Structure formats: structure tokens, C-alpha cells
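Recap quiz, item 2
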Amino acid sequence: MHRRVSVLGATGSVGSSTLALMDEAERAGTARFTVAALTGGRNIERLAEAARRWRPELVVTAWPELKSDLEDALAGSGIPVAAGESALIEAALRPADWIMAAIVGVAGLKSTWAAAGTGAIVGLANKESLVCCGPALMARATTAGGRILPVDSEHSAIYQVFPHDHPEGVRRLVLTASGGPFRQTPAAELARVTPERAVAHPNWSMGAKISVDSATMANKGLEMIEAAYLFGMPADRIDVVVHPESVIHSMVEYVDGSTLAQMGPPDMKTPIACALAWPDRLSWPAPRLDLAAMGQLTFEAPDPVRFPALRLAREALEAGGGAPTIFNAANEVAALAFLDRRLAFLNIAAVIAETLERMVKTGADSDFDDACAGALALDAHARRVAIEIVGDLALAA
Ligand code: NAD
Ligand code: MG
């Protein structure tokens, strides 16, 4: 297998796993890769290291003020360097067979949107762009002759067991959730938890923002919206079950009573490999599942009282229009404020609820022709509202 790939967000958790997987597959002699573009953020050392290994045609840092650092780090290599937002788009537009969209948050929307318009296969980790632009993003990829392949482990699982040619056979989708680091933490203690505790996930090693999302279960809410758009399924046919071992990554229940589940060790390289080689399978030295050693798999219902973000996401999906974009913007603002110690953990959901309340009920929505521009405008508006609410809650505390 030979693929020409670009990795947007190459220095993050998913981006690094993508490059590590490619490296392992090349060493195993099962695949070869040519790299068109790599992008990163502030971690110039890691970006330069990846660029030296893969020799991309273009390497981009999102921050213009760091361009000269990147040039210094790559001095003598001959690898073209660029910086800033337009350079990120240029990286996304480079001809490639496969583009990994692994920037975190709405910051990844423009480049994911650009990538989807090229006709390449987009490996989608940047779930926030699908939450904000779902149907339009899917349509854009199809119109351009490409497609979106989910990298999020739950959606990769569903993609693998979904009857793509006979979707009428599906009764519901069941997303599994690990429950995060606070699955068993009493409500009273949740009020005092620190960012350090929130990012210490029991099963997965991830970036800071998605780790907080996992702790609040806003991540599962975003994933419910993501699943609705990827698989054309309404909110009332998507359920969530907590499965602390993270071995079953999600399930499809069929109308005849059959349920198909996909399993694997909790390692993002497996869903990345699935998207990278689809419909083929990439052979790499993957960790193996040892069910006998695990002994048992357990399941429980999510607790709607301690984790209200899940209900808020469902309501946003049901409300439709710009509500998922507002949910996402408020969650990003609140999660970052919590990481900065400006907001208490339990107030993350309070900020989401209040932002939705103020904006959805006043009918705020976007009426742009281009869904990406419309989502960005609505996102900016929702952020202003959410920032104000964060300020009010901080003053009240
Ligand atoms: P991360 O924080 O580890 O990495 C984020 C990447 O985005 C980095 O390369 C960073 O440089 C870049 N970035 C950050 N801000 C940017 C900006 N303003 N402009 C351009 N680039 C910017 O995040 P992650 O955990 O790898 O997650 C990436 C995406 O994948 C998220 O949408 C997340 O929800 C999703 N995801 C992650 C995992 C996981 O295991 N980490 C699993 C499923 C889905
Ligand atoms: Mg996931």
C-alpha cells in the first residue's frame, strides 16, 4: 500500500499517533507513505522532528510569530516552511490521497472544510468540525469525490459494523463511554476536582481539551451529534452505555434483534489504521486483545445528574439548526476556562446550559450561504456569550 498523506495537527495526540503508526507500518514493510503537508502549533521541536522524519513538501505552524523558530529548527533541511491561517489552508489543499484532520476544536474547522473539498479521503478526528457543519461537511466531501472516514474510536467501530448498503436494517446505534476519570466520584467532590485530576484518563492518553470533555461526558455528547451526522440517525435512535474497560468501542443494533459490536484495545492507532487503509486492512504490530486476561467486561447506564452535558448535547441535537454549534462553542470556552482554573468543574455544564438558553431561545441562528462561514460566525457569537457567563460565574464564586 502506498498513500500520499497530509496530517493537520501532526504534533497532537492523534497526529503523533498517526505518524507513529505510519512509521511502524513502514518498518513492518506493509505500507509506504509520501507526506504532502504537516501542520502543528506551538510545539516547534516536535513539528520539526516530524518534518525531518517525513520530509513533507510543506510544514506549517499555526502561529506566525513562531515561523522563524520553525525555520531555524529546519535550517539546512530544504523543507519549505510557512505559518498562519492561510498557510494551514494551503496545507489542507495540497494534493493528497488521505488527509488526517486532527486539529483540536473549532480551530480545525476551516482546514477540515478545505480538505473535504479536495476530493481526498479525510480521516476525521476533529469531531468539532462535524458537530458545527455536519450535513454540509459530509455533502462537501461526497460532491468533491472524496469521503469522510471517522477516526473517533466509537464512530470507527460503528462504521465497521454498519450496513452501509442497507441502513434500513438498523434500529439504533449504541455508543460506549468509558465514564472518564470521575465515573465513581460523588457529586459533592466533583465541585472541587482539579484540571490535573480531570486530564488523568483511566484508559486513553489524549490531548487536554478532549480529556476534560471526557471527564464531563461532553465528549460523548459531541460524539452523539457526530454519529447522527455520519450515519444519518436521529437523536432518539442513538444511546450511550458506560463501559469502563473501553474494549467494545460501540455497537449497531439491528431491527431483527442482532447487535454487532467492534472490539479492540484502547489504542487510537487501530481506528487510525482502519481509516488509513479502508476498505483494506493495514497490517502493523498492533497490540492484541486478550479477553481471557481481562476476565470480564462491564456496563452501566450514564448518570444524568452528575453528567448533565450528555443531556444538553441530546437537546441541542434535537433542537437542530445552530444549537450543536452553540453547544460546542460554549463547551470549548468552559473547558478551557476550567483548564485555566477560572471555572469550577461543575460549572462547565452550567455554562453550556446557560449559553444554549440565551441563544437558542432568542432564536439566534446563522443565515450564511457557506455553511463553514455561517458556523464560524455563530461560533464566535456563542463564544462571546459563553465568555460573559464564565465571567459572571467566576465573580459569583
Ligand atoms: P491535542 O491537543 O493533543 O492536539 C491538537 C493539535 O491541534 C496539535 O497539533 C496542535 O498544534 C493543533 N492546534 C491546536 N490549536 C490550534 C490552532 N488554533 N490552529 C491550528 N492548529 C492548532 O488534541 P488531540 O487529543 O490529538 O485531539 C485532536 C482532535 O481529535 C480533537 O478534535 C479531539 O476531539 C479528537 N479526538 C482525539 C482523540 C484522542 O485520543 N486524543 C480521540 C478521538 C478524537
Ligand atoms: Mg471517542
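The chain has three domains: 2-150, 157-267+293-319, 321-397.
The longest strand covers residues 32-40.
End of item.
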